[in-house]
């Protein structure tokens, strides 16, 4: 069993853009409905993701926090497109930018569509207590805030957040 240890952050500014190594477009959708996950009726999220001509099926424990059981399997891109088109409640679109700081990879997701305006940085770590660089552009940690989980952004996209919800997030950075 794989364990994903991931920390997620809002960003202070756009200075991270100077360090982009490469970027890719991602499309993903969830085969287990977001509502079931929010209600606690699901023990896992099941996601199909496409990046270019590559695709994966991902199963992740539906528990909040930075360490979760995760399984990921490559699948044919055509199969993933069919899953997104026919079995998912919605599709999340984003550009993932890869930025390396002191040898540590930060994946910065710039959301599109109904989540445009939301940008978060994720860093995968080898241990929960692993030390990692804190570049000046790294803002408030949101790892434990379920509203920032991709599965929730399909059901409650960033564009639908109230001005009070957005202001609270901006003020917290």
Q: What does this protein look like?
A:
The structure is a single chain. This protein is α+β, with helices and mostly antiparallel strands. It has four helices and nine strands; from the N terminus they run ββαβββαββββαα. The relative contact order is 0.24.
Task: Name some characteristics of this structure.
globular, eight-stranded antiparallel barrel, alpha+beta, Hypothetical Protein Pfu-838710-001, 173 residues, 4 helices, 18% helix
Mean pLDDT: 91
Supply the CATH architecture. Answer: Beta Barrel
Output the structural class: alpha+beta
Assembly level = single chain
Strand elements, count = 9
State the order of secondary-structure elements, H for helix, E for strand.
Answer: EEHEEEHEEEEHH
What's the alpha carbon Rg, rounded to whole Å? 16 Å
Instruction: Kindly state the percentage of residues in helix.
Output: 10-25%
Strand order of the largest sheet: 1-5-4-3-2-6-7-8
| Low-confidence sequence ranges | none
């Amino acid at each position: 069993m794989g364990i994903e240890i991931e920390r997620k952050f809002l960003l202070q500014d756009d200075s991270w853009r100077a360090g982009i190594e490469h970027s890719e477009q991602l499309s993903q959708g969830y085969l287990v409905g977001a509502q079931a996950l929010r209600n606690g009726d699901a023990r896992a999220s099941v996601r199909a993701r496409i990046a270019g001509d590559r695709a994966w099926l991902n199963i992740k424990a539906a528990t909040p926090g930075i360490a979760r059981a995760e399984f990921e399997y490559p699948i044919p891109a055509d199969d993933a497109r069919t899953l997104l088109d026919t079995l998912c409640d919605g599709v999340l679109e984003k550009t993932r930018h890869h930025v390396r700081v002191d040898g540590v990879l930060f994946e910065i997701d710039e959301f599109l569509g109904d989540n445009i305006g939301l940008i978060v940085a994720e860093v995968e770590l080898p241990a929960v207590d692993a030390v990692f660089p804190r570049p000046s552009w790294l803002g408030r940690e949101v790892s434990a805030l379920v509203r920032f989980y991709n599965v929730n952004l399909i059901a409650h996209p960033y564009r639908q957040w109230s001005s009070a919800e957005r202001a609270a997030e901006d003020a917290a950075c």
